[in-house]
Amino acid sequence: MRPNYSLAPPCRRASPTRHASFVDHVQRRTRVALRLLLLPCSLIAHDVIAGTCDIAAAEPIRPVVELFTSEGCSSCPPADRWLSGIATAPRRSITALAYHVDYWDYLGWGDRFAQPAFGQLHQTRVAHGGGTIRYTPQVFVDGHEFTPWRQGAEPRPGSKAALSLQVTYPPIESGRPANFLVRAQGVIPRDSSATLVLIEHALSSHVRAGENAGRSLRHDAVVRSLIVLPIDTTRPSFAAQLDVPGDLVPANSEWALILRDGHGNTLQSLDSSQCDG
């Protein structure tokens, strides 16, 4: 029987979107990323490698579910529970990402998993969907708002991918940057980008102030680190380095790679749950 995810009214809405703010932020962040793209693929040759993982073209695209949430939002725990249910399922068929935003911190509780960049990304998702107002909790699937989550629905696999991906990945170690090597095959549209994220499960907080004061909250699929790389369509391979927080528990972590076109549509996705070992 499907769980019942009761929903309180959404938190008050945040400010209208400002699409340019996240674009500017990404441009600043990706100056280093652009230099990484120009590095030879031997970047990780001397690093310890955990394995290589790939996904072929013509397979259905694994849906990418993005939840924008906050520990300072009293309406968010039902959405957190819904995402945990699909993010930790034994044979899941989705990639789940929980972005904690900081724009509700002023209500009295600072969300320790929030980053300003996640609020800016939230603005970008809303703008790509033609909206002007963001709110929490808000769920997007492959860049489009997904409201059926309120009834416990789960997204279905998308159309067949035109791209294949191969990722050489390192072991994840707390406080040590992780170097990845990505190879893509297929036609990549101009203005495409690659998003590499590190997520952590089994996190919890006892909230002592704000709308959730006195509640213990559990989180899964929390985005702990993120990098967005513009893709050079003339280069089938690129290297990327992902920061790893010092307090991250490697045994509870996973990585995910998403390729998107310039409109935010998912071209291909791959996460470490699809890899052997």
Detail the topology: elements first, then pairings.
Elements: H1 19-38, E1 51-55, E2 64-69, H2 77-87, E3 95-100, H3 116-128, E4 138-141, E5 144-145, E6 164-169, E7 178-185, E8 193-200, E9 203-206, E10 216-219, E11 222-230, E12 237-242, E13 253-260, E14 266-271
Parallel strand pairs: 2-3
Antiparallel strand pairs: 1-6, 2-4, 4-5, 6-7, 7-12, 8-11, 8-13, 9-10, 13-14
Helix pairs in contact: 1-3
Task: Give a short synopsis of this structure.
By secondary structure, this protein is α+β, with helices and mostly antiparallel strands. The chain has helices at residues 19-38, 77-87, 116-128; strands at 51-55, 64-69, 95-100, 138-141, 144-145, 164-169, 178-185, 193-200, 203-206, 216-219, 222-230, 237-242, 253-260, 266-271. The strands form 4 sheets. Strands 1-6-7-12 form a 4-stranded antiparallel β-sheet. Strands 3-2-4-5 form a 4-stranded mixed β-sheet, with helices on both faces. A 4-stranded antiparallel β-sheet has the order 11-8-13-14.
Output the keywords:
277 residues, Immunoglobulin-like, alpha+beta, four-stranded antiparallel β-sheet, globular, four-stranded mixed β-sheet
Kindly describe this structure.
The structure is a single chain. With 277 residues, the chain is α+β, with helices and mostly antiparallel strands. The protein has one domain (19-274): Immunoglobulin-like. It is 16% helix and 30% strand. It has helices at residues 19-38, 77-87, 116-128; strands spanning 51-55, 64-69, 95-100, 138-141, 144-145, 164-169, 178-185, 193-200, 203-206, 216-219, 222-230, 237-242, 253-260, 266-271. β13 and β14 (266-271) form a beta hairpin. α1 packs across α3. The longest helix is centred in the first third of the chain and has 20 residues, at 19-38. 42% of the residues are buried. Mean pLDDT is 85; it is low at 1-9 and 16-46.
